[in-house]
Design goal:
Order of helices and strands: EEEHHEEHHEHEHEHEHEHHEHHEHHHEH
Shape: globular
Radius of gyration: 20 Å
Largest sheet: 10 strands, mixed
Pfam family, one: Abhydrolase_6
Structural class: alpha/beta
Strand content: 15-25%
InterPro entries: AB_hydrolase_1, AB_hydrolase_fold, Carboxylesterase_BioH
Helix content: 25-40%
CATH architecture: 3-Layer(aba) Sandwich
Keywords: Signal
Bound molecules: 2-acetamido-2-deoxy-beta-D-glucopyranose
Distance between the termini: 29 Å
Number of strands: 13
Oligomer: single chain
Protein name: Alpha/beta-hydrolase
């Protein structure tokens, strides 16, 4: 991580669509937007896959078994260690500044990182954008925003699902932050005075990784779909509920990914893990399924396993313990939130988890830690009922913190 070489190529997409019929790469309401493709060179300490790669879905069934077994902490070791690797990855995203400038808020850039199972469209729904589109909400309030396809999703580069993982994604996000802060990353877009990272789920974990390693390059954090006190079996339950299969056997549109990429078996597996009745519209789940993206098995396991000898599924807990030991500093403010009935990070019930106020101990030096449980919905807070209620909480938080 001594140096990051960042080059940037941007191209402007100019298109005018009638309201309600917008192409994915088009302008967003209230913003001046550019789709960009950015090659980024980073060095990261990556886990090295140590098992045979998947030939077929019987191999996937076997690994699901190994992850779920009661003694997996002792019996299951997918990685054989770590290795420092330097590589250049192509990341595609969309950067927008607000059409109407308000109180110089355009100088604050929100960098939004989506979670497992989606691509950048998680933040910018074309289904009922007034109800589900965070990007347009942020632009309306006057913030600039960059939202991108995490490595291996959407239009960004696809590397093997056995090597795509948290470590390289943390470095990529850090490089984006540095580039946007110093300017010159994208022609026509100068530097931004303040950078606030907004994450969902896995995107919140990468965001936390950046905050941990490079606390001085960010000014604020909004972490959604995260709780910091997962039940011991959270990882096992999540993977079982996804019922994942090799992505290209689920949908031929994923044939540009290797067998390390897994997809929800069907829309109902997706609904079980991200939604809670009665607080969703089936139309919103159908849209979410239409933008679903596979995840790399190493992405999943790198979050939940600390190393070849470490106990599986202690990952986040270890992170929290380590943070305490190292007196982890984030001299900034953060909002931590998820849905009340989040299966993935709370085992299905978040009020009691948030009552423990764990986030405050994970970020002991933060100036402000605001925990918030959004009523009624599951893990996929952007597509649950009253998503705009959550956006209001986020915007209030940002305004109160002076952004
Ligand atoms: C990777 O590089 C870091 C920083 O130089 C070093 O601390 C670490 O031990 C290296 N890891 C491996 C596996 O070589
Ligand atoms: C939507 O969320 C906001 C923010 O928590 C809350 O104040 C409001 O009561 C919610 N509305 C409904 C209809 O649940």
């Amino acid at each position: 991580m001594l140096s990051h070489l960042i080059a940037a190529v941007g191209f402007l997409i100019i298109s005018l669509f009638p309201e309600g019929v917008r192409s994915e790469s088009a302008q967003y309401q209230g913003g001046i937007c550019k789709d960009v493709s950015i090659p980024i060179t980073v060095t990261s300490e990556n886990f090295v896959w140590g098992l045979p790669t998947f030939k077929d879905n019987f191999d996937v069934a076997e690994i699901l078994f190994e992850v779920a077994r009661d003694d997996s902490a002792e019996a299951f070791h997918p990685f054989i260690g770590t290795r420092n690797e330097t590589a250049t990855y192509r990341i595609e995203g969309t950067v927008c500044t607000p059409m109407v400038k308000t109180q110089q808020r355009e100088n604050t850039l929100l960098i939004a990182t989506h979670g497992l199972g989606y691509d950048r469209r998680y933040w910018a729904s074309t289904y009922k954008p007034k109800d589900y589109n965070f990007v347009e909400k942020a632009l309306k309030i006057g913030y600039s925003i960059f939202f991108y396809d995490r490595l291996g999703t959407g239009k960004s580069q696809k590397i093997s699902g056995f090597s795509n993982q948290l470590a390289n994604q943390v470095e990529l996000l850090a490089a984006l932050c540095k580039g946007f802060r110093s300017g010159g990353l994208i022609p026509g877009f100068g530097s931004f005075k303040q950078i606030v990272l907004v994450g969902h789920s896995y995107g919140s974990s990468s965001t936390q990784g950046v905050a941990q390693k490079y606390p001085d390059i960010i000014d604020g954090l909004v972490l959604t779909g995260i709780a910091y006190y997962p039940p011991p079996d959270a990882g096992k339950i999540t993977l079982e509920a996804f019922a994942p299969r090799i992505a290209k056997t689920v949908d031929p549109q994923f044939s540009d990914r290797d067998n390390g990429y897994l997809a929800f078996r069907d829309i109902h597996a997706h609904a079980q893990t991200f939604f809670k009745q009665p607080n969703y519209e089936i139309g919103a789940v159908e849209y979410a399924q239409s933008i679903a993206n596979p995840f790399g098995i190493a992405e999943f396991l790198s979050l939940f396993i600390g190393g070849s000898n470490a106990s599986p599924f202690l990952g986040p807990v270890l992170v929290s313990l380590l943070s305490k030991l190292l007196c982890f500093q984030v001299l900034t403010s953060l909002l931590v939130t998820t849905g009340e009935f989040d299966l993935i990070v709370c085992g299905g019930e978040c009020n009691s988890v948030f009552a423990r106020d764990i986030a405050r101990s994970v970020f002991p030096r933060a100036s402000v830690v605001e925990p918030y449980v959004h009523p009624g919905v599951g893990h996929g807070v952007n597509f649950g009922k009253n998503a705009t209620g959550l956006y209001d909480v986020i915007i209030d938080f940002l305004e109160n913190q002076g952004f």
